[in-house]
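Incident log, structure service

09:12 report received: a user says their structure output differs between two submissions of the same chain.
09:20 pulled the input from the user's history:
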Amino acid sequence: MIHPIYSATLVLALFFACPGAMNATETQTGPSAPPWLLSDVPSKYQEAAKAVALVLVREKEEPKEFKAEVEEKEGGEVFVFHLWHVSAFAPENRNAPGNPGGKCRDISFNLRTGKASRSVFWQ
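09:34 re-ran on a clean worker, output below:
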């Protein structure tokens, strides 16, 4: 049986010897994953995110399976949601070009009209 002090020392040694190897977020989503779940975008984008989620539901998708990067265009009048589907982060799709899981897409939200476009799939 290993003494608890040695066990803790071993864990710390492995942690510092392998930077990032024990980062749970990186393991689950990949090092270049977008920062937000669609439901967790900053408050500035919440209304738009709800409209984007409705588009996904109409397209028979599950909004909670997407992460989003939001880009402002046309002087902040349009929010483009670059949506990463969880399938893009599957081990077999890592480092694959284009739309690795086949479900990544963009949906735009126009602040003037209050409407979201339909999906434009990545190529």
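09:41 both user submissions now match this output. Likely a transient worker issue. Closing.
09:42 reviewer note: Strands lie at 36-37, 66-73, 78-85, 105-110, 115-116, 120-121. Residues 1-28 form one domain.
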